[in-house]
Amino acid sequence: MRLLLIEDDLSLIEILKKQLEKAGFSVDVAHDGVEAEYLGNEGIYGLAVLDLGIPKRNGLDVLKNWRKQQNDIPVLILTARDTWHEKVDGFKAGADDYLAKPFHVEELLARINALIHRANQQPGGTRIVIGDLTLDEGRQEVIIANGQTYQLSGFEFKLLRYLFLHPGKLISKSTLKDHVYDFESDTDSNVIEVYISHLRRKLGKQRIKTHRGQGYIFQDPIK
Questions:
Q1: pLDDT tens across 95-150, in order?
Q2: Residues 6 or more apart in contact with residue 110 via CB below 8 angstroms
Q3: Domain extent listing, the chain
Q4: Contact present, 36 and 62 (Cβ < 8 Å)
């Protein structure tokens, strides 16, 4: 899952980017509101973490402009302001959640996961269940039907989480690249094929079906 982090505090960016990547997210950073609004309209992010106090264009205006353009990206607002009326303004502008500074990174991660689950019509918590498969996001592992558990590499986890969140949908290779890589990554398309093969060895070939020239479908073979 690819996130857009919009923040101008360089020390906080360093901390958050490291922790978000450790939790299995690909992260791009925007340092001001103009860049943030442009990137957020690219359609490649599962969620935006938006600081209101950013230069060039404030975060509230960025959010309002996204919503005017029918951009429904989930947005979690970060701000040093913690008054009730500012929270109301944020929610009226289209925010999905709100976290005041200072905060614990663990709470930020929990809120991000909850928003992503909600946006993809999944129940809350740290697990996603598709048929007889369970993806544990906290441990970054998958549990198959017989109870066997496989620890996932960082890229395997990113890839499988995106597939778990979009079961039964045809997903092109370019879409997978957009959602599991960040701008700083080497985006060799052959890597996707290699890791799809790795996941099939763990889950069974029938779980991820190839539609030649179109992409992949992650499916529950029980249905």
A1: 999 999 889 999 999 999 999 999 988 888 889 999 889 999 999 999 998 889 99
A2: none
A3: 2-119, 127-218
A4: yes
- Count how many residues are written for the chain: 223
Place of tokens 């922790």: 19
HSE, CB side, 13 Å, CA atoms: give it for residue 177: 16
Bridge-based pairing of strands 2-6 and 133-136 is unpaired
pLDDT digits (tens, 9 = 90+) for 54-66: 999 999 999 999 9
Token pair 């919503």 is found at 67
Q: Which residues of 118-152 are buried (b: 16+ CB within 10 A; e: fewer)?
A: eebebeeeebbebeebbbbbeebbbbeeeeeeeeb
Domain 2-119 in CATH 3.30.700.30? The answer is no
- Check: CB of residue 34 under 8 Å from CB of residue 28: no
User: Helix H segments across the chain?
Assistant: 10-22, 33-40, 59-68, 84-93, 105-119, 154-165, 173-180, 189-203
What does the alpha-carbon distance between residue 204 and residue 82 come to, in Å, rounded to a whole number?
A: 49
- SS3 assignment, position 51: strand
CATH of domain 127-218: 1.10.10.10
φ/ψ of 201, rounded to 5, equals -65, -30
